[in-house]
Amino acid sequence: MKAVYLLPFVVALCLGNAITSRKEKDLEWWESTIFYQIYPRSFADSDGDGIGDLNGITSKLEYIKEIGVGAIWLSPMFQSPMYDFGYDISDFYAVHDEYGTMEDFEALTKRAEELGIKVVLDLVPNHSSNESEWFQKALEGDEKYYNYFVWEDAIIDEDGNRQPPNNWLSHFRGSAWEYREEVGKYYLHQFVVGQPDLNYRNPDVVAEMENVVRFWLERGVAGFRVDAVNCLFEVDKNLHGGQYPDEPLSGAVGVSLDDHDSLDHIYTKNQNETYYVVYDWRDVLDEFKARDGLTRVMMTEVYASIQDVVKYFGEGDRKGAQMPFNFDLITDVDASSSAGDIKRAIDKFLTYKPLDKDANWVVGNHDNSRMATRYGSSLVDGINMIILLLPGVGVTYMGEELGLVDGYVSWEDTVDPSGCNTNDPINYGKWSRDPERTPFQWNAEKNAGFSTADKTWLPVAEGYETLNVEVQRAAERSHLKLYQALAALRQDRVFRHGRFESLALNQDVFAFRRWYKGEVYLVVVNMRDVEHDVNLTYFENVSGDVKVVLRSIQSQKNEGDKFPAASLPLAGFESLVLKVK
Ligand code: NOJ
Ligand code: MG
C-alpha cells in the first residue's frame, strides 16, 4: 500500500533528475571564450618609437576578433621605470607614457566593447617600484608609506661589516634585501632591486590594492590576471622571535648559491594568509557583478604544487579565482615528453580541481620559452588542438596561433633583468626571457610590420618574412587557419558540455575523446616524427569509421576522409580532430 502511494513521487523524482541532468549548464562568457595574452611592449607600435603601445593594440583588435578570441589580458601597461618591463609599477593609477594615455586606454576598451572583446588587466600586488611615490615618501620618513614596505635591520658581521638580515634570495639572483642609507635599513625585494615588496600585514596596503582593483573596474575592465600572488606574504616574524628566519637549502643540483632555486621558499611563498586576500578581491569583483550582471574574472599566476594552486579557487563558501592558472603544460612536459607524460600532465589539473570549477590550459607566456620552441614547430597544431578542445578555458600567448618561435637576442641586446643579472655573456640565454618577448610578426615588411622604427626595443626574430600573420592568412592551410577553425569548433556543445577521457595509445600518440548526447569527437596527436597505425577502439563506444574534421598542416588527409577506427594511419607529428558519430 505504502509503495503505491510513493510511486508517483519516485517517478516525479526520477523525471526531475533526468531533466536536470540533461539540461545544459548555462555557461558564462569567460567559460567558453579564449583568453589571449598581449605583451603590450611587443604587439604593435603605433608611433614608431620601436615600442608597442595601446593604440597599437587597439588597431589590431579586429585581428583578435578574426581569430575567434573573446578576451585579451594585457601584461602591465601602468606607469613604470621598466626595470622589469612594467612589473615594477610606479603609479598603479596611470598609463605608462611610452604606451599612451588614459584616453588611449579608454579608446581601447571602447573599441574592444564594440567588437565584443573583454579586456583583462594585470594586477601586480606583490611589489611596487622604488620610483613610486609610495617608496619615495617612505625614504623621506613618511610613516604611513614606510609601513607599506618590509624593512629590516642589518646584521653586523664579525668584521664589523653590514650584511643583509638573512639569506633570502631575489628571483633574479642575489640577496632579496637592499640597504637604504636614508632609512638605515634593508628593504625586501623578491624580484629586482627596483621592485620593493609591499607589506600585506599592513591593512593600509590591503586597502590600497583593493582601491587599485576598484579604480580599473570602474574603467570597464572585465577582471585581472594577478601577478606573483603566492609571494604576497612572508612568514610572520613574530612567530620566529621577531626575526625573519633563513630559508633552508633546496638541494637543487647544478644551481649556484645566489640562484633563487638554491633555497626552499618555505617562508616567502604560499603562506596561508594569501588565499584570504584573494577571496577578498573576489568579493570586490562580485560587488561589480551585482551592479550590472557581468562576471568579472580573476586568473592567478602561481607556480606551486597542484594542491596549493587549487586553493585559489576558494574555500567553503568563500569564492576565489575562476582561473588559477594551470601551468602543467609549461612546467611538466615538452618536446621530449611521451604521450603518457602528456596524459599525466593533463589529468593532473582535472584530478585536483574541485568538480564544480573549470579547468584552464596555458602553454605559454612572456616568462617562458614559446610553445613552438618548447614543443617544436611540428607540434603547434597538435598543442593548439589540445588546449582549445579540452574541457575548460583556453589561454593563448600572442603568437601561439601562428607558431611563433623564440627570437635570438644577443648578450648586447639583452634587456631582461633575469638575463642581465647573470653577468654571463655565454649562458645568459638559459635565464633571459627576451626570446619569448621579441616583436609580434604581422607581415614581411620592415620589423615584421611591428614598428616603423629603425631599432625596436628587442630585435625581430629571424624568419619573420615567411612566419607572419599575412602569409598565414593568405595560405590555404596554416597554423592560423587551423586555430580559427579550432576556435569555432570549441563552441560546439560537445566541447562546451561534453565529457572527457584521455588515452596514451602508445608511447607517441596521445588522444582524447569528448562526447555529449550521442555525439563523439576524438582528438589524436602524434608527438613524434614516426608513423603509426593506431586503434581507436580502445576508447569505449568507438567503433566503425571515424571522419576527419580538422587536421594539422602536415597532414595529407582531407576533411571528410573516413578511416576505420580500429586502424587509423598517422604520419609523423600528424594531429587530427575526428568525428565518430
Ligand atoms: C611574474 C611576471 O609574469 C614576470 O614577468 C615578473 O618578472 C614577475 N612576476 C615579477 O612581477
Ligand atoms: Mg610606440
Can you describe this structure?
The protein contains 18 helices and 25 strands. It is globular. The protein folds into two domains: 30-127 and 203-230 and 272-483, TIM Barrel; 128-197 and 235-270, Oligo-1,6-glucosidase, Domain 2 (Oligo-1,6-glucosidase, domain 2, Alpha-Beta Complex). Helix 8 (203-218) runs parallel beside helix 9 and helix 14 packs parallel to helix 17. The longest helix has 21 residues, at 2-22. Helix 9 links the parallel strand 11 (223-226) and strand 12 (297-300). It has 581 residues and is of the alpha/beta class. It binds 1-deoxynojirimycin and magnesium ion. 1-deoxynojirimycin binds at residues 84, 87, 124, 191, 227-228, 301, 366-367. 1-deoxynojirimycin binds next to loops.
Question: TL;DR of this structure?
Answer:
The chain is an alpha/beta fold. The strands form 7 sheets. The protein has an 8-stranded parallel β-sheet. Helix 8 (203-218) runs parallel beside helix 9 and helix 14 runs parallel beside helix 17 (479-489).
- How much helical structure, as a percent, in the residues? 25-40%
Number of helices: 18
* Number of separate domains: 2
* Low-confidence blocks of residues: 10-22
CATH architecture of the largest domain: Alpha-Beta Barrel
Largest sheet, spatial ordering of strands: 15-12-11-5-2-1-17-16
Number of strands: 25
| Beta-strand residue percentage | 15-25%
Query: What is the distance, rounded to the nearest whole angstrom, between the alpha carbons of the first and last residues?
Result: 46 Å
Sum up the overall morphology in one term: globular
Bound molecules: 1-deoxynojirimycin, magnesium ion
CATH superfamily of the largest domain: Glycosidases
Largest sheet: 8 strands, parallel
- Average predicted local confidence, pLDDT: 96
Radius of gyration: 25 Å
| CATH fold label of the largest domain | TIM Barrel
Please identify the structural class as seen in this structure: alpha/beta
What is the name of the CATH class of the largest domain? Alpha Beta
